[in-house]
Amino acid sequence: MQNKMNTRFAMDVDAGLSQPQKRIPPKYFYDEKGSALFADIMRMPEYYLTDAELEIFTSQTHDLIDAFDLDRGEYFELIELGAGDGFKTRELLKDLVLEGYRYDYMPIDISKDALEQLQESLAEDLPQVSVVTKHGDYFHILESLKDSHHPKVVLFLGSNMGNMSDAFASDFIYRLGASLNRGDKLLIGVDLIKSADVVLPAYNDAGGITRAFNLNLLRRINRELGGDFNLNAFEHAPEYTEEEGVAHSYLKSLRDQDVTIAAMGKTYRFARGERVHTEISRKYNDEIMARILSKTDFEIIRKLTDSKGYFADYILNRR
């Protein structure tokens, strides 16, 4: 399995570094060190996204439940895509139980370890919640659940959609809808467009955590693919403008240099100032959301924001 993964990693890195605009797919951020660094990022004071969405889930829990339009007498399935440690969802889980709703909480994640830890944590903190973990790909699992015909509420939190292009996001939501039934609900958490003085520090913090997160991609290539990247010869270079509404992360070469990667048996040339694109983080407003949803089977029925108007949870209905 490890060899197969490294082969895919090598192919993706080679394809990305062979383009005129070099890039490395952001999915490779998350080795063990990268995952730990991202957990640190979510706790940074500059990273407003976590606290903003957590505020919605803790201070507007009843509004969320009302928007789901659930029947207390009917069992439903609460499905969270990429649940991780599920910490934002806990207040919702607790209130659903207190208000007498019958449901299974079904966290989906590609990390079996994360699911096991989440299940153990919830068994201790909220033993009254029925937890049915689902390990694997979102679409395969949703497809397997479609035949149950129970009402479903799907959570896609943390502005994870922001790492997609608008076209990809539209296709992603359409595919989610294909695995759901009419009247099912989808909650999507997104970061709203705002000024650069708020957004940029979240991607370029004073403590250097986002810098370390970005540069860890090169460290991972060195370790797993036999690269000889000099991490001191690259710098973390994020960009954002309110007009575009997209934050970009780059690694910029500080000099003319050649880098060899043994797994591919190839050498790649980097000019001084040349950038390697590593990630996008899309910011949204109602117009952008409407455009993305226009080719899907969903309609917006509610929008909840935090007190500063930084973040929004859109609740969608499957038509």
CATH topology of the largest domain: Rossmann fold
Taking all residues together, what is the mean pLDDT? 95
Number of helical segments? 11
State the name of the first-level CATH class of the largest domain: Alpha Beta
Q: What is the architecture of the largest domain at the second tier of CATH?
A: 3-Layer(aba) Sandwich
Which superfamily, in CATH terms, is the homologous superfamily of the largest domain? Vaccinia Virus protein VP39
Sheet with most strands: 8 strands, mixed
- The coarse overall form would be globular
List segments where confidence is low: pLDDT < 50 over at least 5 consecutive residues: none
Helix content: 25-40%
Number-wise, the strands total: 14
Work out the strand percent: 15-25%
Instruction: Report the end-to-end length measured between terminal Cα atoms.
Output: 40 Å
Q: How many structural domains can be distinguished in the coordinates? A: 2
Give a description of the structure.
The structure is a single chain. The chain is α/β, with parallel strands linked by helices and 319 residues long. It folds into 2 domains: 2-30 and 198-282, no CATH class; 49-192 and 284-318, Vaccinia Virus protein VP39 (Rossmann fold). Helices cover 38% and strands 24% of the residues. It is built from 11 helices and 14 strands. It has helices at residues 2-17, 32-42, 48-59, 61-68, 90-98, 112-125, 138-146, 166-178, 196-199, 209-225, 286-293; strands at residues 76-81, 103-109, 130-131, 134-135, 152-156, 185-191, 234-236, 239-241, 246-253, 257-261, 266-270, 275-282, 298-305, 311-318. Strands 1, 2, 3, 4, 5, 6, 13 and 14 form an 8-stranded mixed beta sheet that branches. Strands 7, 8, 9 and 12 form a 4-stranded antiparallel beta sheet that branches. Helix 6 links the parallel strand 2 and strand 3. Helix 2 runs antiparallel to helix 10. The longest helix is centred in the C-terminal third of the chain and has 17 residues, at 209-225. The protein is globular, with a radius of gyration of 21 Å. The two termini are 40 Å apart. The model has no long low-confidence stretch (mean pLDDT 95).
